[in-house]
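Dissemination and training. As part of the outreach component of the grant, students in the summer workshop were shown how a complex can be specified as a set of sequence lines and then modelled as a single object. The example used during the hands-on session is reproduced here so that future cohorts can follow it. Participants entered these lines:
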Amino acid sequence: MQKKSEVQSLENYLSQIAHELRALPSQARADEMREIEAHLRTMIEERGDVAGVLAQFGKPRKVGRDLRKAWESRQQESWWRIIVAIPTGASFYMIGMSSWINISQLFVNGGGFTKSPSIYFLAFATFTVLLSGAVFGSISPKRSRIAGALLSSTILWCWFVVFRSSHQLDFSIFAYGAAFWLYQTFLLLTGIHFGARRGKRLSVRLAK
Amino acid sequence: MARKPTRGDVSALILAVLSEGALHGYAIAREVERRSENALALREGSLYPTLRDLETNGYIVGEWDDAATPTGTPARKTYKLTAAGQSELAKQAREWQIYARALDGFLGGKANAEKI
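and obtained this result:
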């Protein structure tokens, strides 16, 4: 039979894990705690040494944090979020791209712009691409980075095809294209990075 | 002295144990100890996050057995390997063999065993 102090240390241990899991929906938290408690009680029955068992199990806050992160990754990639996020991210990206194409049309052979692009338009175009990256990153950061790099390269290819009709492909056009591609990829990947961090917290809130 | 497996090794150990039949978390941990003759000290707190990761990746699937055990311990979740899990296990086993052979060249082999 366990001493009162041993029961308390087990309860204290479990409550520390539960505290780390407080952001999870109640059913998910209950399932995790049920499983861990069953494991711990079986170990304690077998060995009798509560302190030794708890030490072997590991630091409770770390156990709880690792479980929470594993759960959050699972939620991030749920199908309904992918179905909602992909058209949303793609829409922002298309708005951003059409703005950049308008800006690019001002660029002429030999370098330079016929008219300086408006700073507000540049900011708007930058912001929409960042936002599209953030939306993609919130669902699946690993896949988004690969998809983002591919998307950016595809857009560059499309841009060259469109540009050929109105410009001669001289060095200045290639240099502008390279700078354009680097900047778009940078914006997408930055958006994905911040979206991934936000997405983990958002996925937990949406699942509740 | 017992060695703590790395996070990557823990997933390989779990897949290997489950390849022989479905088990719940506690039994997985005990089986790792038994088969390694206590050479591997699994920190059980790393077991459940790894099980969740494996479930997320579709390598294992868990099911609750709602009947309490004869000793009165609460119901348990049993895990079994999926087809994707079998492939992942085969891949990890191949990678481990290449790694172990490479390490053997430095640390293992008859000549080194005699020195020890």
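The first strand of chain B starts at residue 23 and ends at 24. Students were then asked to discuss how this feature might be tested experimentally.
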